[in-house]
Amino acid sequence: MFLTLGFISIAPVQAQSPSAEEVLQKAIAFHDPNGNWESLNTTFKVVMETPDRPLRTSTIAVDFPQQEFTLDVEQDGNSYLYKINKDSCEITLNGSNDISEEEAEKFRLNCERGNFMKDYYTYLYGLPMKLNDPGTHLDPKLYNKTFKGKKYVVLKVTYDAEVGTDTWYFYFDPTTYAMEVYQFYHDESKNDGEYILLNGLEEINGIKMPKTRAWYLNKDDKYLGTDTLEKI
User: Fold this and answer.
1) InterPro entries annotated for this entry (predicted)?
2) Would 196 be classed as within a structural domain?
3) Exposed (0-12), middle (13-18) or buried (19+): which is 109, by Cβ within 10 Å?
């Protein structure tokens, strides 16, 4: 049965445990043992299944040294592409860059949205490495929590206002330091936001990324969808 997150307290781990910073570095060593994230140049696919919506397939290409990001999305017979290179942004819909205002509104095609998606994908698939980014504040306390019958060591993270306003918790296996759950709140006192269950690993350029991510609401465990990572 799902645990009701609002009624589970997170307690500090006893003093003899590793520090929060040490746990983060152990988790990074597990997921990116060769330090490949910063120079990543690769392409992968993410298939999103959402209740009552058509399957969405996103092909993502990143070249961090060249500051390039490409997102090619196929859903319900249409495709659109964002190509972002440093400060430039190109958008096409079904192979054409001649996009009407109606089409742009229908498919939410604008460069602000493209940059949001770039940040979204590079943040989530860059975890836990992205927790070293500027503007990220790691709570020095290390927490422990039992979630769905398993004990985890948990890191709490907040951000500078210009980076993000949510509070995040990251759950790691206490032996391997693999990241298996993460969770965020807009306002923790309201038990809002979502939690995400990670299952399996896919190795992309030597980086162990979650194979599947299943999304749920914190307040009532409502299932939102699952995305699956695929190699190309």
Assistant:
1) DUF6503 (IPR045444)
2) yes
3) middle
Q: Residue 118 is part of a domain; what is its CATH number?
A: 2.50.20
For 169, the 3-state DSSP assignment is strand
Count of other CB atoms within 10 angstroms of residue 14: 8
**What are residue 139's phi and psi, to 5 degrees?**
-60, 125
Q: What CA–CA distance (Å, rounded) separates 43 from 71?
A: 10
pLDDT in tens, 85-134: 988 999 999 999 999 999 999 999 999 999 999 999 999 999 999 999 99
Place of tokens 């949001």: 116
Question: Residue 218: phi, psi to the nearest 5?
Answer: -65, -40
CB of 47 closer than 8 Å to CB of 53: no
Residues 164, 177 contacting (CB under 8 angstroms): no
Indicate the number of domains in the chain: 1
Q: What is the DSSP letter of 55?
A: -
| Cα–Cα distance measured from residue 207 to residue 97, given in angstroms and rounded to the nearest whole number | 34
| pTM confidence score | 0.89
**Tell me: the pLDDT tens digits for 125-136?**
999 999 999 999
Cα atoms found within 13 Å of the Cα of residue 174, Cβ hemisphere only: 14
Distance between CA atoms of 187 and 69, rounded to whole angstroms? 31
